Amino acid sequence: MELSLNASINQKYEASGQITRETRKSVESRDWRGRPYLEICEFAEKEIRRRGGEPAFPVNVCANESAAHYTAEIDDKKIVDQNAILKVDLGAHVDGYVTDTSVTLCYNDSLFDMTEATKAALNEAIKAVRLGEKPGDVGRIVENYATRRGYLPIENLSGHSLEQYVVHAGVSIPNVWSISNSSFKLDRVYAVEPFFTTREGSGIVVEGKSRNIFGIVTRKRTKDAKLDGFLDLVWKTRRTLPFAARWFTEYYSKQNINDMIANLMKMRLVHAYPELIESEGTPIAQAEHTIRVSAAGPIVLT
Q: Is 0.85 surpassed by the pTM of this model?
């Protein structure tokens, strides 16, 4: 008997979630101090593919005050510091059905409690994700938990809904209370992801200088065969999902890739995701799971 459409989609989300979960555990089981960022990214992306998925986005490796959107560049030389608080954010997709998770690897004893508090806040937030409830009420729970533990939530980072080939699908799940015009829907999939920083911080992230994660804005023809060929290749392998320059070194030189991306950005056919850093330079911890909303409550996929 053929599966219903919803059952088939749910199976793909479950398969994606298993791949993402197992990959996160593999990353978490290793000591990455003194290791290159590039090694972490390639290891996690290889693990995703080995398990039958594809990366939903380039693996993010963000240390200390960096919160999101840094992935290794081609020939990246950055090394994990011995006292880093390291966020590894990864996701997989199966036929475009994305699951998203993260782990904070704390190599600084003074930040261990903040790391654990962020994980605990995630668990509290997930309990509140129920059919018909408002995302803003989840934000209130995260904010209140951060306050009780003596930390600040990052107020301009949030969780998000997920759809086929779309990582950020329109619904935000804040980390502070805010008015919500939407509510959680049956069988919809969401990523919940608290970020905490210390009391010395601002609780705000700002754009950094690094921009090494990209996405297609539109497939409009450029009248340049080389640029059109690159856009076609990205679309074939990524569709609307984010990509990294280092994924295309099999086809082009480093200089060619960087030049093509720069030109496509000038044409507004490709956009970049800037690295996000705490405005006061204070360290950040992150925890994240992807969940599906069922009539009985949230189902953790990752």
A: yes
- Give the residue among 132, 111, 45 at the shortest CA–CA distance from 282: 111
Give the up-direction half-sphere exposure of residue 198: CA atoms within 13 A in the CB hemisphere.
12
CA-nearest of 136, 192, 133, 187 to 163 is 187
User: CB neighbours of 223 closer than 8 A, spacing ≥ 6?
Assistant: none
Q: Annotated active-site positions, please?
A: 89, 100, 160, 168, 193, 288
Count of residues in the chain:
302
Amino acid residing at 150: G
Taken in order of first residue, the domains within the chain and their CATH numbers are 5-207+277-300 (3.90.230.10), 209-276 (1.10.10.10)
The 10s digit of each residue's pLDDT in 202-248 is 999 999 999 999 999 999 999 999 999 999 999 999 999 999 999 99
Contact 81, 47 (CB under 8 A): no
Asked whether the beta carbons of 213 and 242 are under 8 A apart, the reply is: yes
Burial of residue 22 (number of CB atoms within 10 Å: 0-12, 13-18, 19+): middle
Spatial distance between the Cα atoms of 224 and 13, rounded to a whole number of angstroms: 38
3-state secondary structure 20-56: HHHHHHHHHCCCCCCCEHHHHHHHHHHHHHHCCCEEC
